[in-house]
Amino acid sequence: MATQPSTKSNSRKTARSQGRASAKSSREQRSKRAQNVARKSASTESKRPRSSQKTLSDLLEHGLKDMYYAEKKIYRALPKMIRKADHPELKEALENHRAETESQIETLENVFELLGKRARGEKCEAIDGILEEGESLLEDFGDSVASDAAIIFSCQAVEHYEITRYGSLRAFAEELGLEEIRDHLDAILAQEKAADGTLNELAEGSINDAASEYDAEEESALS
Ligand SMILES: [Fe+2]
Ligand SMILES: [Fe+2]
């Protein structure tokens, strides 16, 4: 007959195992607390301003350099689009926006002056990529019925890029209390939004429709 362990020895074992469990859980809690403290101090450390650390002003300046580079490239890229554009209203819209782009370059120069910095562009791969894509679209579609639609397609990518960047930059200027700079950036932003709106109206008003005529003819020939 198997002997049952006594109740006394059972309770000693339970107490020992409870003791081990509670020691283990307090060790875990201590190590968790230590990890939390270490994490907190690391994050405080990383937020602490240091002379070598980049600031929001640096980001504003970086973005302005990007846009100064971008506007100059856009200004140089537009004539090719204008030459290829067929619809007179599209040609006119692009010519007007090229003139605005020229004035935006001057506005950015004023902004640099207000910051006490020399106007200087910084190579921006994002606008380079958008404009390169526009070039290759022009090669592929420039002599097709969808040529004007392709030009708007490319130009709207540029406008949306500009809108997102100027939107962020004007918010940085506002945050930094640079009201005059914010107003300049707001003025440019309004022009970019208006240019995008005009392109939208042209695309949806007539240009996409005209470009789709050939698709409709092909469809009816197939049926
Ligand atoms: Fe622009
Ligand atoms: Fe623009």
Mind telling me the CATH class of the domain at 56-208?
A: Mainly Alpha
How much of the sequence lies in strands comes to under 5%
Alpha-carbon distance between the two ends: 94 Å
Bound molecules: fe (ii) ion
Helical stretch tally: 7
- State the order of secondary-structure elements, H for helix, E for strand: HHHHHHH
CATH architecture of the domain at 56-208: Up-down Bundle
If you compute it from the alpha carbons, what radius of gyration comes out, rounded to the nearest whole angstrom? Answer: 32 Å
CATH fold annotation of the domain at 56-208: Ferritin
Count the strands? Answer: 0
Low-confidence stretches: 1-8, 40-45
* Residue share in helix: over 70%
Principal-axes geometry comes out as: globular
Mean pLDDT: 85
How would a crystallographer describe the biggest sheet? none
Could you state the CATH homologous superfamily of the domain at 56-208?
Ferritin, core subunit, four-helix bundle
The assigned structural class equals: mainly alpha
